[in-house]
Amino acid sequence: MFNRKHIVYLYDGTFYGLLTIVFECYMQKTIPSNIVFEGDYLPNFLDPVQFIATNEEKAKRIWNGVYNSISYTALHDCYYAFLSCKKGKEMLILEYLLHGFLVGSRITNQLSVPYVIDVVKLRKNVIGEAHRLKGLVRLSEIKNNLWYAPIHPDNNVLEQVGHFLMKRFPCQDIILHDKNRNLAFIYNSQNRNDYEIIQLPNNLKIPSFSEEEVEFQKLWKTFFQTIAIKERTNSRLQMQYMPKKYWKDLIELL
Questions:
Q1: What pLDDT sits at residue 46?
Q2: Engineered SS bond to 166: which of 47, 57, 88, 187, CB 3.0-4.6 Å?
Q3: Residue 119 CB neighbours (<10 A)
Q4: 160: burial class by Cβ within 10 Å (0-12, 13-18, 19+)?
Q5: pLDDT, tens digit, for every residue of 184-232?
C-alpha cells in the first residue's frame, strides 16, 4: 500500500515534528529512505532532501488517529521509543504507525514484525533508565532555597524523572539538569503541577551549595563509608543496581 521513495526527510527533532511526517507519508502513501533531525544531518549529494516543517494540526490528527484507530498502548510505545537515543528510531516509529493504521490494535501483539519489536525494545529501554534514575538521583540544596540535581542519561528521560521528583517533593523548588542535552526541568512549588523544560547555555555556572548542604553531604559520605563492609564488597552487584555511568552524579561516590 505504501511505496518506497528515495528521499530524506528532515525535521526539527520534536515528537510533533515526527507526527507531521507520518501525516504526510500517510496522505502521499510513501515511505522515505530516512528521517533525520536537521541538526544531525550530514549532507550527501546522492540523497534528495526535504525539510518537513512541524504542523501542529496535522500532528494532532495523527495523535488522535493513533489513539482512536490503533490503541493507547501503540501511542505510548511510540512516544517512549521517540525519547530513545537510538539512531534510526524515526523510521521504526513511522513504519510502526503506518502499519498500525492498516491492522489496528493488533499491531501491539505482532512482535514478529521487526519494527514492532524494535519499538517495544526502545520503550522498555527508556522506561528502564527512567526507573533507575528515580532511585539514584540526588537533590542538593543550592542558594535561594533551590534543590538541584545533575543527571547524565542516555535517553531523554528528563520529564519522566522530573515528574517523579515534583510529586515526591511538592513543596520544594527543583531544577533537574540533563547535562548530556543541556536541558533543565524546572518546578516551582508555588504553582503546583506547573513546570517547564528549558534549554540551558553550555557555559552555565551552577551556584554553590548552601552551607547546610555541604555539612549534610559530609555526613552522608561518612555514613556510606562507615556501613560498608570491606570484606563483603561486591563491585559487580553494585554496578548492577547503580550502573557506573551514573556514579558521577552520586554524592557518596564523588
A1: 86
A2: 187
A3: 26
A4: buried
A5: 999 988 877 789 999 988 777 887 888 888 888 899 888 888 888 887 8
* Whether the predicted pLDDT of 26 surpasses 80: yes
Span between the terminal Cα atoms of the chain, in Å: 56
141-167 pLDDT, tens per residue?
998 788 999 999 999 999 999 999 999
246 alpha-carbon distance from chain centroid = 16
The DSSP H or E segment spanning 62 is helix 56-65
Q: Which helix (H) or strand (E) is 17 found in, with range?
A: helix 15-28
Q: How far apart are CA 236 and CA 139, in angstroms?
A: 26
Provide the residue type at 149 as one letter. Answer: A
For residue 216 the three cell numbers come to: 549534610
| DSSP labels, 221-245 | HHHHHHH--GGG--HHHHHHHS-GG
Torsion of CA 97, 99, 101, 103, to 10 degrees: -130
